[in-house]
Amino acid sequence: MLTPHFLSYCLSQFKKGKLFFSEGGCIMTYKAYVFDAYGTLFDVHSVMEKIHEFFPDQGDEISKEWRSRQVHYFLVRQLIDAYRPFSEITEWALKDALLYSGVNAKPDMVADLMREYEQLTPYEEVNSLKQRFPDRTLTIFSNGTNAMLEPLLEHNDLTDTFGLLSADAPKVYKPHPDAYHYAQEQLGLEKEEILFFSSNPWDITGAASYGFHTAWVNRKEQKWPELGMEPTHILNDLTDIPK
InterPro entries attached here (predicted)? Predict the structure, then answer.
């Protein structure tokens, strides 16, 4: 779905002679598709099955609490300019989520659940992206570290599909503008040549504020939050990607 923000942009670029309209709408070709990993390409709640093994009937509760704390903790660390690797943030969030849920988790259980983050399940349309867009640069840009992401891609046979950029390199988490600037520098493209995908509104807002075109992957069909900034595109999943 095209948003009013994108249609306005199309009109401005049309007047400059940088794109054209057809019966299908506004025609623009992006050179790179850049994807957030967690929640966008990979289902972070696929860890629930493993959690259920340890703590029956609490998988959903613990998984949601884990993710909520993970996001909250790295945002706080970014605000106070005290970077720590995403792997540490993720483990802190897991331990606190387990305590909050009132379970007694042994160290080997925590280690097993952390390993699950290297085996998350990709959404079903992810495996076909390389085949669908053979001439397009496909890159993951994540707050996760390479040590977390490389095993995840290898486990799912996606190493040859995506390039990999991590916020661990500049030591700045998304949604800080310096994080997106790092990604742009590594790609060597103009902002408008990049389409950034994420299921996370905070990530889309950060990328849009920096100047990227954005695609909000709204898998749960939620209302876009009132953040004073809209995504360029709104998608139900990754089956209908703008070209």
Answer: 2-HAD (IPR006328), HAD-like_sf (IPR036412), HAD-SF_hydro_IA (IPR006439), HAD_sf (IPR023214), PGP-like_dom2 (IPR023198), S-2-haloacid_dehalogenase (IPR051540)
Indicate the SS3 state at residue 190: coil
116, 142, 174 - which closes a domain: 116
In the listed set 66, 94, 116, which residue is the last one of a domain according to the structure?
116
The SS3 call for residue 33 is strand
pLDDT, tens digit (0-9, with 9 covering 90-100), for 96-116: 999 999 998 999 999 999 999
What positions carry a catalytic annotation?
A: 36
CATH number of the domain at 94, please: 1.10.150.240
Could you tell me if 41 and 123 are in contact, meaning their C-beta atoms sit under 8 angstroms apart? yes
Residue 241 domain flag = no
> 34 Cβ partners below 8 Å, 6+ apart?
139, 140, 141, 165, 183, 187, 194, 195, 196, 197, 212
What stretches of the chain adopt beta strand conformation (E)?
20-22, 25-27, 32-35, 42-43, 121-122, 137-142, 163-166, 194-198, 213-217, 233-235
- Interacting residues of 108 by C-beta distance below 8 A, sequence separation 6+: none
Closest by Cα among 65, 78, 66 to 114: 66
For residue range 40-73, list pLDDT tens digits in order: 999 999 999 999 999 998 999 999 999 999 999 9
**Local structure of residue 199 (DSSP, 8 states):** S
How wide is the angle at C-alpha 210 spanned by C-alphas 204 and 216, nearest 5°?
15
- φ, ψ of residue 95 to 5 degrees: the values are -60, -40
Q: Any bridge partners for residue 2, and if so which?
A: 233
Closest by CA position to 242, among listed 43, 39, 32, 4: 32
In DSSP terms, which residues pair with 38 in a beta bridge?
42
